[in-house]
Amino acid sequence: MILETTEQGRMLVHVRFLGKDPASEPDGSPTLFATDRTDRATYVVQGWKVTDAQVRQEVGELPEHEDIVEVPEEVLVMWARRYQEAVIR
């Protein structure tokens, strides 16, 4: 496996737009992207940052380099449909 890296040794990752919530605002809606990582399949999710203290407490402590976002179910359903279509092909 070969991963493209920068001079600083960080892996270069590019994303491909998969889709966004059709019911939300055009300029800031929850969006799903696929990465081009070669070591594993990963996704980047643009969503609403979770600031609700109760939710954050229930999720628990997060590492400094992580955060949580909320996305509507439609974004996940869209991903599931695309994944199933790809598997069937």
Description of the structure:
Helix content is 26%, strand content 21%. With 89 residues, it is an alpha+beta fold. The strands form two sheets. A three-stranded antiparallel β-sheet has the order 1-2-3. A two-stranded antiparallel ribbon has the order 4-5. It is globular, with a radius of gyration of 16 Å.
Topology of helices and strands:
Blueprint: E1 15-20, E2 31-35, E3 43-46, E4 48-49, H1 53-59, E5 69-70, H2 73-88
Antiparallel strand pairs: 1-2, 2-3, 4-5
Brief synopsis:
The protein is α+β, with helices and mostly antiparallel strands and 89 residues long. The chain is 26% helix and 21% strand. The relative contact order is 0.19.
* Chain-averaged pLDDT: 83
Number of strands: 5
Order of strands in the sheet with most strands: 1-2-3
Helix content: 25-40%
Low-pLDDT residue intervals, each spanning 5 or more residues: none
Give the helix/strand class. Answer: alpha+beta
Q: Please give the alpha-carbon distance between the first and last residues.
A: 25 Å
What order do the helices and strands follow?
A: EEEEHEH
- Tell me the overall shape: globular
Radius of gyration: 16 Å
Search tags:
alpha+beta, three-stranded antiparallel beta sheet, single chain, globular, two-stranded antiparallel sheet, 89 residues, 26% helix
